[in-house]
Each structure stands twice: as C-alpha cells, then as structure tokens.
Amino acid sequence: MSKKYMSEMGRSYYVTPTSYLELINTFKNLLSIQRREVLDSKARYDNGLSKLKETAEQVNDMQVFLEDLQPKLQEATIATDKLLITIEADRKVANEQKTFVNGEAVKCNIQAQDAKALKDSCEADLREAEPALEAAERALNSLKKDDITEMKAMKKPSLALRMVIAAISILFEVKPDKKMKE
Predict the structure, then answer these.
(1) What CA–CA distance (Å, rounded) separates 7 from 13?
(2) pLDDT (tens digit, 0 to 9) for every residue of the chain, 182 residues total?
(3) How far apart are CA 163 and CA 167, in angstroms?
C-alpha cells in the first residue's frame, strides 16, 4: 500500500508510533461501534424471539379456550335454530292475524262511513224537524185552560184533534181512557 501511495502521489509514507497508536485507537473505536451494533441487533432478535414465544403460548391458550367453548357454541347454535323456527312460526301467525285485522279494519271503515252517512242524514232530518218542534212548543205554550175546557166540551172531536191528543198521551206516557178509532 505504501508503494502504491508512492507511485500515485510521489511521496513516501512512514509508519510512526503515533500513527500506529492512532490506527489502533481508530480500530478500537470501530470495534466498539460494531460490537454495540451487534449487541443491539442481538437484543432485538432476542426480544423478537421472546415475543414470538409469548404469542405462541397465547395462541395455544386461545386454542384450548376455543376448544372448551366449542360444545357451548354448538348448544347455542341449536338453541338459536330452535328460536328461529319459533320466530318463523310466530311470524306466520302474526301475518295471518295482520291479514285478518286488515280485513276487519276495512269492514270497520265501511261501517264507520255508513254510520257517518246515517249520522249526517239524521242531523239533516233533525235540522228539518227542529223548526216544526219549536213551532209546536210555541203552540203548546200558547194553550190556555179555556182551550182545554173547550176541547172537553166537544162531544165528537175531529180526527186531527184526536191524533194530537193520542200523540201527547204517548209522549207523556199517559194511557188514554179510550182507544182512538179511525
């Protein structure tokens, strides 16, 4: 190497004790750096191996746990299947009941519409009859004792008068003395 240096640079290189000691110190520094790197790598590998061992142990524990749970899982699956069958049967019954209830709802709606139409008709008839009722009440209030006495004095009242008296007897729930003949 010294010859090569001489040929390229044209200078001689001499190994002195100082340069030799410097070489040894540099070698020691490089050796300590390499040892540190190797120790760090070894520590990482050791840590990785310990983690792998721990993971393998955990996996084994989990496999044992899963094997212990397998019968319980099968029982739960059977119970779930039974529950699904029950739910399906209940769903069919519920759908049948829903169909029946919907049919009844349609009938009820029709009856409600009929009842509303009847109510409207009755209210219309009542509105027509109210003026006649009010007129009859006014006429009844205008009756005097003399009018009743005059009616009693009649030997044969008219048919209209007899019908009115019969209607009044029915309204006041009083039985007439004699039945009216037409």
Answers:
(1) 11
(2) 778 888 888 888 777 899 889 999 999 999 999 999 999 999 999 999 999 999 999 999 999 999 888 888 899 999 999 999 999 999 999 999 999 999 999 999 999 999 999 999 999 988 888 888 888 888 878 878 887 787 777 778 788 878 887 888 888 888 766 655 54
(3) 6
